[in-house]
Amino acid sequence: MRHGYFTRVGGVSDGIYRGLNIGTGSSDDQTLVAENRRRVAAWMGVPADHLLTAHQVHSPDVVVAREPFAGPRPKADAIVTDRPGIAIGASTADCGPVLFADAEARVIGAAHAGWKGAFTGVLENTVLAMEGLGAHRDRIVAVLGPSIGPDNYEVGPEFVARFVEADAGNHRYFRPSKTAGHSMFDLNRYTVDRLRKAGVTAEGLGRCTYAEEELFYSYRRTTHRREADYGRQVSAIVLEKE
Q1: What is the pTM of this model?
Q2: How far is CA 6 from each of CA 11, 64, 131, 225, rounded to the nearest angstrom?
Q3: What is the fold, at CATH topology level, of the domain defined by 2-149+186-237?
Q4: Residue spans in the chain of domains classed CATH 3.60.140.10
Q5: Which of 131, 101, 133, 127 is nearest to 240 (CA)?
Q6: How does the average pLDDT of the chain come out, rounded?
Q7: What single-letter DSSP state applies at residue 114?
Q8: pLDDT (tens digit, 9 = 90+) per residue, 9-21?
Q9: Which of 35, 79, 99, 221 has the fewest other C-beta atoms within 10 Å?
């Protein structure tokens, strides 16, 4: 298996997209985006059209990929495969990219887990989809890549209420912020805990996309600066041919 949590370093985009912007949904020059994606695919050891990312919509939906997508990318937030040479990835700019692998069954997954996707079950659904391809959850290893950290993710009271109403134990993922009535949310811990509760071995890299500007794009940082748009980094995994 080959995998990478890519940063923004090493690409050809410029301006607010400076670096390795792979965001086809951004307003960046799509010729440059295509070259950035080609570079990622080359590192993964696959042709450019074999690097697959879904049209992410903050859903719990998962697709199985056994060949390059034909036509428009499917609307989903996770991809699983058991086919060598198909690199699957999650595009992020604060949300959590999670890569999954059952090395024995040779089944892999990639999920885009922002708060909404994690809250509505994209992580658990990825595990189920991998099981459908022959994986066993007690053998699956999942690692959360760079995402916004708890020191930079401020949320309002209605956000906290949504989580606590779903599970009173969710209060442990929040702490008071400097803004009255607001809280700081630990998306990383929430994501890893949900993965472990699903029965897989899980860890997080502990890298904050908001704080580490030289390495990562960040939607929230861009919003705070009132910039027009933002780039996206990718995290990807592939089964190499035996």
Answers
A1: 0.96
A2: 11, 23, 27, 24
A3: CNF1/YfiH-like putative cysteine hydrolases (3.60.140)
A4: 2-149+186-237
A5: 101
A6: 97
A7: -
A8: 999 999 999 999 9
A9: 35
